[in-house]
Amino acid sequence: MKKYNFNAGPSILPREVIEATSAACLDFEGSGLSLMETSHRAKNFQPIVDEAVALFKELLSIPEGYSVVFLGGGASLEFCMVPYNFLEKKAAYLNTGVWASKAQKEAKLFGEVVEVASSADKNFTYIPKNFTIPTDADYLHITSNNTIYGTELLKDIDSPIPVIADMSSDIFSRPIDVSKYGMIYGGAQKNLSMAGVTFCIIKEDLLGKVSRPIPTMLDYRTHVKKGSMFNTPPTVPIYCALQNLKWIKKQGGVEAMEKLAIQRSAILYEEIDRNKLFVGTAEADSRSRMNITFVLKPEYQELQDEFMAFATSKGMVGVKGHRDVGGFRASCYNAMTIEGCEALVACMKEFEKSH
Ligand SMILES: *Cc1c(COP(=O)(O)O)cnc(C)c1O
Q1: How far apart are CA 334 and CA 200, in angstroms?
Q2: Is 50 assigned a catalytic role?
Q3: In terms of DSSP bridges, do strands 183-187 and 163-166 run parallel, antiparallel, or are they unpaired?
């Protein structure tokens, strides 16, 4: 049976990306060696990093003055590296969920943290609006897509101070104006690559402004200066990312990805709003295009396990909601097809009919 992968992360990747990466793991570009046993300093590996960086810059129209680096440690290590490198006295954080709170918690180790707004009052079902950004803070940290709650900030915000964004789960799903950001980072395993690599897009002139000493590996300047090659980078995940970036370009770039994301999410939200059994959890104007969260209406709560089993029997994978929200979550990253969303909708309709 055909499987539809709605996993939140690690998550769906285009089949050809998986095939190209697998082929390189068996024989890297005709070298007779596996990519896994190839040195990151090998002549044939450097072009992989260079091309991935070039495609990042091309696909996101990254202006001059920004560096793209690939690191280890996941988005979670960036929660600590961001304040280490940028927080001198005070930083502002927008609290839109678990990941945003975790980022904020790390910042408190380095200085004063101002929470500009929080949607904790309603279990993070919306993105706060009309908050005031303190002009004397070193940066404003945001989480553009809240993977767990299914909310998304779909606009680049205007800010008097540098914006630093965790875009782990919506990078490359829409065009962004990188010039409005001081830094953008994320773990790759949601919408870019397999697990194991973290991407950072860093505005170079923001570096070197804090007075504290920074351990070499945690200092962004180390990685910018050495082009992600200070130590051994995650070579296979970087290769996989490059294949995916090529795929995105072939599909028509981030504009095409956005169009698809709009279509996919519209198909699912339309059914959630129509179906008598289900209700969406995110407020309408904060709904994510990447993670579509929904629950059974109170009067149908007892059908939770039955729907999960039914969806699974129809080939749906990973639609169980995060424990903090419950219900269901359909993660629809770039590689998810319209057909996949229609199959889930068909499943919801059929289940409705039998109840
Ligand atoms: C998954 C996720 C993280 C955590 O990423 P790791 O790479 O596992 O550290 C952080 N932020 C967001 C928005 C996420 O979706």
Answers
A1: 19
A2: no
A3: parallel
Q: Are residues 247 and 265 in the same domain?
A: no
Final residue in a domain of this structure, among 251, 285, 308: 251
Tokens of 44: 């044939």
Nearest CA to ligand 1 atom 2: 168
pLDDT at 55: 98
Alpha carbon nearest to ligand 1 atom 14, residue: 168
Instruction: Give the list of residues 6+ apart from residue 227 with CB closer than 8 angstroms, or none.
Output: 49, 53, 69
Judge if pTM exceeds 0.90.
yes
Q: Per residue in 261-294, pLDDT tens?
A: 999 999 999 999 999 999 999 999 999 999 999 9
Count: domains in the chain = 2
Domain that holds residue 290: 253-353
Closest CA to 336 of 66, 8, 14, 39: 14
Quickly tell me which residue has 């179906």 as its tokens. Answer: 275
Same domain (yes/no): 187, 261: no
How far is residue 278's CA from residue 254's CA, in Å, rounded to a whole number?
31
CA-closest candidate to residue 8, choices 237, 350, 293, 329: 329
Q: How far away, in angstroms, is 332 Cα from ligand 1 center?
A: 16
Whose C-alpha lies nearest to ligand 1, atom 8?
Answer: 74
User: Are 156 and 131 in contact, with CB atoms under 8 Å apart?
Assistant: no
Residues with CB under 6 A from ligand 1: 9, 74-76, 99, 143, 147, 166, 168-169, 187, 190
* Residue 166 annotated among the catalytic residues of the structure: yes
Q: Which of 166, 170, 203, 320 is catalytic?
A: 166
